Amino acid sequence: xxxxxxxxxxxxxxxxxxxxxxxxxxxxxxxxxxxxxxxxxxxxxxxxxxxxxxxxxxxxxxxxxxxxxxxxxxxxxxxxxxxxxxxxxxxxxxxxxxxxxxxxxxxxxxxxxxxxxxxxxxxxxxxxxxxxxxxxxx
Length: 138
Description:
Elements lengths: L6 H12 L5 E2 L2 E2 L4 E3 L2 E3 L4 E3 L2 E3 L2 E3 L4 E3 L2 E2 L3 E3 L4 E3 L2 E3 L2 E2 L4 E3 L5 E2 L2 E2 L4 E3 L11 E2 L4 E3 L2
């Protein structure tokens, strides 16, 4: 049992759940993509020119394009990750992560969140974002 009241505890609970998933691909994976270890890709999801390293789960109707999704990452339904890297994180429904030049790690991203590139960049990002957030990264 884990008290998931804190972000680090939510990530730890996610790790435990993902460690038990089975490898299953119900969505589309193009020939330029690479899927490693235990990965679940749900119905309607598309993986284009990307690397997914499990354990990880990609939700229904989610698109991963020109991106890296690392171990212990859960990406929920109807989400877009494009030209970005993310690992050891949770991304909830209807979110967009586009053009982020540094890897997003150890993060929890709420529903309907948009994270896009901004010209000034730090070297790393660590976030906990609530539902319906909008973030322009520097």
